[in-house]
Write a structure and sequence with these properties.
The chain is mainly β. It has one domain. Helices cover 10% and strands 38% of the residues. Strand 3 and strand 4 form a beta hairpin. The structure holds zinc ion (ZN) (2 copies).
Length: 135
């Protein structure tokens, strides 16, 4: 049995859902973010499955290039005042609908992601609940 938990992510500024059901990754709605690089601007879709770091983009993302991340709804920057502990690039901050935050490194090729739960016990309970009922 595959236990898949998909995180629903929303914009920390306008509170709108950033899930894109029209662009699924691993059969789940992905997280849609507008990105601006040095040469191109485009769209990045992140896999919403907890623990999966797959992503797709409609522009070519060179390894080690850093990008600016913007909400597709309100166009505000999603970069936070936190540096990646691995490569020192700014981290991207997104809110999880059920509470907590996801931080993703803005550098292409760096797989530093982490999920921060504000209410750890509650979120973990919810996770186990979903795991227990999904199969
Ligand atoms: Zn927004
Ligand atoms: Zn990094």
């Amino acid at each position: 049995m595959n236990h898949i938990v998909s995180l629903e992510v929303k914009c920390p500024h306008c509170d709108k859902s950033m899930m894109d059901a029209d662009h699924p990754i691993r059969d789940k709605a992905s997280v849609k973010i507008n990105i601006v690089g040095k040469k191109e601007r485009g769209v990045l879709w992140l896999c919403s499955v907890y623990g999966c770091y797959s992503h797709e983009s409609n522009i070519s993302t060179e390894k080690d290039e850093t990008f600016e991340f913007f909400c597709p709804h309100c166009n505000k920057s999603l970069l936070r005042d936190i540096k990646c502990q691995i490569c020192d690039a700014p981290m991207v901050g997104l809110n999880i609908k059920t509470g907590g935050k996801v931080n993703v490194c803005s550098r292409s090729g760096c797989e530093n992601h982490y999920v921060v739960f504000e209410d750890l016990a509650g979120a973990v309970n919810k996770f186990y609940h979903e795991l227990g009922t999904s199969g």
